[in-house]
Amino acid sequence: MATTPAATPPLLRRVNASKLLGVLSTAGVMTGTGLIEATGLTRATVHAVCNDLIAMGWVVELDPGHDAPGTPVGRPSRRFEFNSQAGYVLGIDVGAAKTTVLLADLRGETVAKAGRSFAEVKTPTEQTEVVNQAVLETLAAAGVSDQEVLAAAVGIAAPVDRDGNILVDDEFWRRFDAGLTARLSELHGWPVLLENDANLAALGERWRGQAREVDDLVVLLAGERFGSGLMDSGRLLHGSRGGAGEMVYLKMVEGVGDTAGIARTARERGAKAVADPAVKTSLRALAGDKPVTAELVFAAAASGDQVALGILDEVTTRTARVVATLAILFNPELVVIGGAVAEAAKSLLPSITEQLAGFTATPPRVAASSLGDAIVSVGAVRRALNYVEEHALDLQLLARRT
Predict the structure, then answer these.
(1) How does pLDDT run along the chain (402 residues), one tens digit per residue?
(2) Long-range CB contact pairs, 109-113, < 8 A, 24+
(3) Does an H or E element contain 75, and which?
(4) Best label site of 30, 226, 251, 379, fewest CB within 10 Å?
(5) Cα dihedral sign for 254, 258, 264, 269?
(6) Which domains does the chain have, with CATH numbers?
(7) Which helix (H) or strand (E) holds 125?
(8) Any residues with CB less than 8 A from the CB of 103 and at least 6 apart, and which?
């Protein structure tokens, strides 16, 4: 019978270093005693591994502290802190209309942000250049060099498998395979991780949004097009080729019929009403000589406009049906409506929740994201941090805390 090879000292040192980094990266200042209690490692091991991590730049040692009252008087405790400025990560959202770039330290705190429109973009090459300009602007604003960036993650509105490959079997999705990540890596030298935007939204929501501590989660991006990111038992679901959560099936759902999201549906119904001279609605005056927007429809409804209220009734029922299908298929504890439309969607939540009970025996809680249009870029930061934590002991650190 085969036996498992014994762990070698270097391997044990590596495992212990990862364990200590995992504790320190989510905590404040910790003493050696605190790390012993948190990790179960011996005092000698904790201090030896901390010395290694200090030498590598991941941990800093602070001035000695004093033990709690009542403990024996002796040498002051060594105090350690994770070096959140040892490097930086980038979270990049490549949307349909614009790109948003966040630069964050190693605790995930935003250091700089930039955005660029794709209004004049006509080719994938031009799109890549716009994204790169936003990256350069973000780095310049923070005074951070390429060498200080440890990883970047990019979100796009296409199926992406576990290895970061776009589903190119489908001609429509193949158009999204523009070589963006390879080009950014070539230009800057850091690893670039590609992921589906809704999957990143789920990571971001569970990390910094309404879904903290929630393991069974769906995040529904609901702006122009419905898309969903799925988490089961705290694990992101991709499917065999990255197609988990894709919502083309909505074309076959009665009362839904297509993948158009809340913003698009409200806008199109509002424009149709304004174009009909027989329809009396305040939307016409609100829009003036400009196109009708979803925001105008929500504003008109808030003022009591009956046409706008009717449009939002339709939007609400449609969204409730979408949420119900996800509830039936995946049985999440929580469904979070995310994207730029999230703030406006708060007014729809009571009616959506009420209607769910008529569609499924396992209705989830429904909430609107508090992350706004940053939900994907925040999730991209979390994805990049996951990579850094996984590969921490193999990365070279150039940034140093002042």
Answers:
(1) 455 545 556 788 888 988 999 899 989 899 999 999 999 999 999 999 999 999 999 999 998 765 444 445 556 789 999 999 999 999 999 998 999 999 999 999 999 999 999 999 888 889 999 999 999 999 999 999 999 999 999 999 989 999 988 876 666 666 776 789 999 999 999 999 999 999 999 999 999 999 999 999 999 999 999 999 999 999 999 999 899 999 999 999 999 999 999 999 999 999 999 999 999 999 999 999 999 999 999 999 999 999 999 999 999 999 999 999 999 999 999 999 999 899 999 999 999 999 999 999 999 999 999 999 999 999 999 999 999 988 888 888 875 544
(2) 109/84, 110/381, 111/142, 111/144, 112/138, 112/139, 112/141, 112/142, 112/144, 113/138, 113/141
(3) none
(4) 251
(5) negative
(6) 9-82 (1.10.10.10), 88-207+376-394 (3.30.420.40), 211-370 (3.30.420.40)
(7) helix 124-142
(8) 88, 89, 90, 110, 111, 112, 113, 138, 139, 141, 142, 144, 149
d(CA 132, CA 152): 12
Place of tokens 């070539």: 186
pTM: 0.90
Phi/psi at 99 (nearest 5 deg)? -120, 145
Neighbours of 211 (CB within 10 A): 27
